[in-house]
Amino acid sequence: MSLFPLFANLQDRPVLVVGGGEVASRKIEGLLRAGAKVRVHAHELAAELQQWLQQGRLQRLEGAFDPAWIDDAWLVVAATDDAAFNRQLAHEAEQRLRMINVVDDAALSSYQLPSVVDRGALQIAVSSGGAAPMLARQLREQLEAQLDHSLADFADLFARHRAAIRARLPDLARRRQWFEHVLQGPMQAMLAAGRTAQAEEAFLEALHNHQQLTRREGRVVVIPIRDPDPGLLTLKALRALNQADALLVDAGIAEPIQLLARRDAHRLPVLSDRQALAARMSQQAQSGDCVVYLHDAAADPGDSRELITRLAATGVPLQVLPAVTPWRDPPVAGP
Questions:
Q1: What DSSP designation does 123 have?
Q2: At the topology level of CATH, where does 14-113 sit?
Q3: Comparing C-alpha atoms, which of 177, 179, 182 is closest to residue 216?
């Protein structure tokens, strides 16, 4: 099952949770952190939910379950151990065009609640689509150990000064270059060391002096692809795809490889006229862009030679990354 990843703004929006046990408590805790107005229907409430109810953090819906409650909810969570009731609840939500998560039942759910690494405004969600929740949890734990909590303060710096950044850097390419400069700078290390004021001072200084940044030199990277397995790409190829401002992709390139490129990279058409294509790529690189061409070398290994020759003649920085071929076991010698 393929899921569409989505971060929902639930601030002051009603969410219906059916169930009052430990599982419901875990779901409600996350919903409350997101600012949702949680409404709970359950025969009994766990001690933690009772406490939140007394504190006014959630509302309890009394009496027999009323399907009309779903109409007032942005999302629904079913956290009961009654399988028949959960199926009926999922049906009612479907009829009312409401998204529902049925705990531990991916087939009945129209959305999943992922494992989350929370660093303030920066959040990383990991989901297996309900297929392997323990695997998602393990990956979350690994990310928790790798990502310093100072990232929350770093993200907050960008959030607080977002308007000033956009005003001073209206050009997207220059803004991206400035972001790369700041992200590679010392600010996060300062925040990790507790030097918050010094980090903000350095951040604002970098923003004030943005015009001193040297415009990044553009380049063209040609990556010959001979195998659809994205795991065979070199680290250099992956780095180039992550840095791509403009992307050209031959028709035969496998989708999993294409998905490794920057999502906001501008897509350019692959022109059949190699001279025109070289001129177009060169022009894009001269504007300061990193232009990456995923060439289907398996379809025509020699097709890129003319293009590479023409690109080299333009004088733009050119890099042709070596293709990675799958390992083949050597033939076994006879006796």
A1: E
A2: Rossmann fold (3.40.50)
A3: 177
